[in-house]
Amino acid sequence: MDIKQAFHRAGLAKIDLGPGFVCVVRDDVISFPDNEEDRKRHPSRTIIVMSNDLLCADLATPLVTVAPTSSQLKWKNKTEVVIRKSDTNGLEHDSRVMLAHLQPIIKTDVERKIGELSWDDWERIMEQIVKNFDRA
């Protein structure tokens, strides 16, 4: 048994994570500083893992960066990308990826993987992140 398998057995790594994985966490794990008091709480929230393979696999790194999602498309703004639901990504609804709320979470807070983004969706998100951080 290698160290990664030992961590899984000990419950220190619930699931394997990777960039573009669509996963579920408890809603209270995610922070929305701009409307924390007013937001509707849910039992869980879908997130997109944004960290690269190296960070996801590194057992010495307890955090991954994620982007929360929302099925409330009417609130979409210019910093976000809409992802259409599919069998591959596991989303129940078309959802906006809330890139203004990128944040680190503890890896063990990820409850389960429900799918994975297509390469096209991943590329659209990466392009939007570059635009969001561009100085122009």
What does this structure look like?
The chain is of the alpha+beta class. It has a single domain, classed as SH3 type barrels, CATH 2.30.30. The chain is 20% helix and 27% strand. The chain has three helices and seven strands, in the order H-E-E-H-E-E-E-E-E-H. Strands 1, 2, 3, 4, 5, 6 and 7 form a seven-stranded antiparallel β-sheet that branches. 26% of the residues are buried.
CATH architecture: Roll
The average pLDDT score comes to 90
The Rg value, from CA coordinates, equals 15 Å
CATH class bucket: Mainly Beta
What proportion of the residues is helical, as a percent range?
Answer: 10-25%
Number of domains: 1
The shape is globular
Sequence stretches where pLDDT stays below 50 over 5 or more residues: none
CATH topology-level fold name: SH3 type barrels
Distance between the ends: 51 Å
Amount of beta strand: 25-35%
How can the largest sheet be summarized? 7 strands, antiparallel
Summarize the structure.
This protein is α+β, with helices and mostly antiparallel strands.
Jot down its keywords.
about 140 residues; alpha+beta; SH3 type barrels; seven-stranded antiparallel β-sheet; about 25% strand; globular
Secondary structure elements and pairings:
Elements: H1 3-9, E1 21-26, E2 44-49, H2 53-57, E3 63-70, E4 81-83, E5 95-97, E6 103-106, E7 110-116, H3 119-133
Antiparallel strand pairs: 1-2, 1-7, 2-3, 3-5, 3-6, 4-5
